[in-house]
Amino acid sequence: MQRAPSPACGHHADGFEPVARTFAEQLARGEEIGAAFSVYQRGVQVVDLWGGVADATSGRAWERDTRIVVFSVTKGFAAMGMHLLAERGTFDWDEPVAKYWPGFGQQGKREISVRTLLNHRAGLPCLDAPLTLKDCIEPARADHVLSALETQAPAWQPGEQQGYHALTFGLYVSELFGRIAGEPLGPFLQRELFQVVGSDARLGTPASEDSRQATLYVPSTRDRLLTLARGALLATGSPETRVTRDLFSRSSVVRRAFTNPSPGPRGLLAYAEVEVRRAALAWASATASADGVARAYLPFASDGRFQEKQLFSKGSLAPVHRRQSWSPRDRLLKKALGWSQGFLKEERQTFSPNPQSFGHAGMGGALGWCDPTAELSIGYVMNRMDAHVRSPRALALCRSLYECEPVYGS
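^ that's the sequence the OP posted. Answer follows.
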């Protein structure tokens, strides 16, 4: 292993100099406050990089095991939990959700299958009943949240269109998972996956991890408006421009989808608060280090195998390698993308040139990804959130990774 170029810390295997340089340059240019990038190839760690500060006020350094809330990377973890249940034969992807959760079948939802729901085609990206994050984490409000989910009518004919279920995905999947498994998603993932593969990811982060938590830095309103203005001038049809334009429309599905449940006056910073990190909000509240994210994807990059353990039967993950749902312009994210049983499927060259790759990106830039063709497992976390739909920093790291000879020559 070679030492990372300054100002980065860590190491990388021979041949991975291009991605190490990119990471170090992003730190040197001040694009990151603190960040880490971890890659495994064929089960062996080949990139282990970190740098910057976890807290800008105190100057506390970002360490190898520093963790941060990873936003929608959480959805990839939720999908992992569902796949573990499916492997055990506890449900069928193409059976109606209402078979396992009878109350779900109200308001035209009786025929929506588990696959349709997890592939963001159920027409349920928003809720009519107003909710708050506090509603979603307080046990006393559980019945209120459940009623909102069960009585919600689809915004479009289920199965006919695709629209990212930004917040509702986690609410629906958590309830469905609990009814099938008989236990909550967070403890199940910890016992059946994270502990097995040695990942420090947590959905429901305990107090013992608080000392490793980095401070989250969210783009200011001014920065977001500048990003919008820049997109309008340079790329009128950019996803950022289209999404932000719809956010200003009170009646738009985009606005309703991204603002309910409401995070309250602190906005996105609410997701970094202790009570939210403690909760298992399956759309956004997981925390992890970069290495923890990458390790969680190890069996998904290697045909269900981790070391000598076969977590999934051979070939059972093959359906995820294909695009099960695809839209040239997703109704919510306003760009071309797709889904396969809860995992994000991106355009080629976004995170990987190999169409079999999958994972989940998080708002602001965090990324959990795997490429079963090259047997790569990738984790990227940072505390400076990006205002783009897909972080240029994450994209640059992934492009550099595929320029590394052990990857493109594999």
